[in-house]
Amino acid sequence: MISAKTLAGLELFEGLPEEDLKMIASLCQELTYAAQSSIFSPEKSARHILLLLKGTVGLTVHASPLAEPVTISVLNTPGQVFGFASVIGQPHHNSSALAVTDVRALAIDGDRLMDFLAAKPETGFLIMKRIAAVISRRLGTMRTLLLETIIDYERQAGATPEN
Fold first, then answer.
1. Is residue 47 part of a domain?
2. Residue 136 lies in a domain
3. 140-161 pLDDT, tens per residue?
4. Which of 49, 104, 126, 144 is 20 to 30 A from 157 in CA distance terms?
5. pLDDT digits (tens, 9 = 90+) for 90-102
């Protein structure tokens, strides 16, 4: 079982009251994934929000059914959040997560976490604000990748990009 102390050391839960950390810890389970295994994909139901404890995870999106997936983020810092579809009201993930190396992750049941956060609005607001910041950063990364792709596509053949 995950301890409140472990949760307190993760960015998403920093500064929360001990009582709240204990309750959230009761919703957690530790999962392991072998290198090169799928953690989730758009075909799977979104049931958990995950926090990386150890290892490296690649987050990818599928631009089309025919194209190879595009890696949008590589997570390798303990505490990084991923798979948050279950706490933003989405029944399925809009990306895939692959264990690049062996991975240990903390899985929190999304429905039960949302029930807890609704009952504790101050804690809920803080956690959702932190999740929104992660989503904003990831969208910024995707926007940059999209713009680079468009620029490369529209650049005339043989043209040299300027600095």
1. yes
2. yes
3. 887 887 787 777 767 666 656 6
4. 144
5. 888 888 999 999 9
